[in-house]
């Protein structure tokens, strides 16, 4: 194709697109979006939900309004997921780990030590594998719009520093409501107890449990330092959050309205990751200043944890399907410069 012809084709395509786009703006109707999340308003999650709300209002000329409801006031993750499926609530953001009961493929993200760093997580989550896993939600009545960073998880407890997995013996450790987490921490010797996040602070305060694991940001924003003395750095798993929409409601939106939400979701993902990483980079200092005793688990001991957890991986492969497991391993090898 010569240059002139190429230019003409491009101009015609642009012309054809301009007309429907102009019409689309008028297609946006008034909507109230109830958007629930589990952490408090001062958290990284709260900040990103606010950012999303602003983007949606701006892009829709104020017609689409987001009512953000944090601190699990609409219920813990699993309850909100059901409200979305039933159409009683429009949107939420929460851990992928709490979705495994609905979409088993989500367990891929619970694989201990799956990602070595945030760049690997971004590449896989935002690439075809992340999309494939997210698309699985649709047959269950949910639409996944974007993955956000919850982050690499670390251990806290009120008993002692954990320097090797044997130190977890006898520690009652809260885990998310998810079998991979339950298996993983039982395998490491802890007394793992599944609890919704909304009950966690009180459970730590009343010593119903001795410890928990979450990214630095959450330990800080949820004030776990008030009820936990020891922070042991393990980075044992990278935990994503996912923005969800009720499919029942989504299917009733027109293309213009769907585009407003999809674009704002992408923008909020970028905002959230940047904000979360900036906060995490200084969080250890902040947590020490709040009185936590912090220890880094030695590399050799992290390697022992990893080895011990390999048998958990086998179970994940079986439940998500070996094709998806192998595809992910191959993509990671490629990212790491292997063949
Ligand atoms: C917030 C949870 C939280 C998660 C957990 O609703 O439960 O520990 O890390 O972020 O999804």
SSE pattern, N- to C-terminal:
HEHEHEHHEEEHEHEHEEHHEHHH
| Mean of pLDDT | 94
Number of domains: 1
Shape: globular
Distinct small molecules: D-xylonic acid
Strand order of the largest sheet: 2-1-3-10-4
Please name the fourth-level CATH homologous superfamily: Bacterial extracellular solute-binding protein, family 7
Structure explained in plain terms:
With 339 residues, the chain is α/β, with parallel strands linked by helices. It has a single domain, classed as 3-Layer(aba) Sandwich (D-Maltodextrin-Binding Protein, domain 2), CATH 3.40.190. It contains 13 helices and 11 strands. A 5-stranded mixed beta sheet has the order 2-1-3-10-4, sandwiched between helices. A 4-stranded mixed beta sheet has the order 8-5-9-11. Helix 6 links the parallel strand 6 and strand 7. Helix 2 (44-59) runs antiparallel to helix 10 and helix 12 (310-320) packs across helix 13 (322-335). The longest helix has 35 residues, at 255-289. It is globular, with a radius of gyration of 22 Å. Mean pLDDT is 94; it is low at 1-20. Residues 38-39, 77, 94-95, 150, 176, 197, 214, 218, 239 line the site of D-xylonic acid.
Key traits:
single chain; 339 residues; alpha/beta; D-Maltodextrin-Binding Protein, domain 2; five-stranded mixed sheet; four-stranded mixed sheet; 11 strands; globular; disordered N terminus; binds D-xylonic acid
């Amino acid at each position: 194709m010569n240059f002139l012809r190429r230019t003409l084709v491009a101009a015609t395509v642009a012309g054809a697109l301009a007309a429907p786009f102009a019409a689309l703006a008028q297609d946006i109707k008034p909507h109230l979006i109830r958007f629930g999340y589990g952490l408090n308003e001062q958290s990284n999650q709260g900040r990103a939900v606010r950012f999303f709300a602003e983007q949606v209002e701006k892009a829709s000329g104020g017609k689409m309004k987001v009512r953000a409801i944090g601190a699990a006031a609409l219920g813990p993750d699993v309850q909100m997921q059901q409200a979305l499926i039933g159409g009683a609530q429009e949107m939420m953001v929460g851990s992928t780990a709490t979705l495994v009961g609905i979409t088993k493929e989500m367990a891929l993200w619970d694989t201990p030590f799956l990602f070595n760093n945030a760049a690997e997580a971004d590449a896989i989550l935002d690439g075809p594998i992340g999309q494939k896993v997210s698309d699985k939600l649709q047959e269950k009545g949910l639409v996944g719009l974007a993955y956000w960073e919850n982050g690499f998880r670390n251990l806290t407890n009120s008993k002692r520093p954990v320097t090797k997995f044997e130190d977890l013996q006898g520690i009652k450790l809260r885990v998310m409501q998810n079998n991979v987490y339950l298996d993983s921490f039982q395998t490491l010797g802890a007394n793992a107890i599944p609890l919704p996040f909304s009950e966690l602070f009180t459970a730590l305060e009343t010593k119903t449990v001795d410890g928990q694991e979450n990214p630095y940001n959450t330990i800080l924003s949820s004030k776990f330092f008030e009820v936990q003395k020891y922070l042991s750095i393990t980075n044992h798993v990278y935990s994503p959050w996912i923005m969800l929409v009720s499919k029942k409601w989504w299917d009733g939106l027109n293309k213009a309205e769907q585009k407003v939400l999809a674009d704002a979701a992408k923008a909020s993902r970028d905002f959230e990751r940047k904000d979360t990483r900036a906060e995490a980079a200084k969080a250890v200092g902040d947590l020490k200043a709040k009185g936590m005793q912090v220890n880094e688990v030695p590399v050799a001991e992290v390697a022992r944890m990893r080895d011990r957890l390999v048998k958990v991986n086998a179970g994940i492969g079986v439940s998500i399907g070996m094709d998806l497991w192998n595809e992910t391993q191959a993509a990671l090898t490629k990212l790491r410069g292997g063949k």
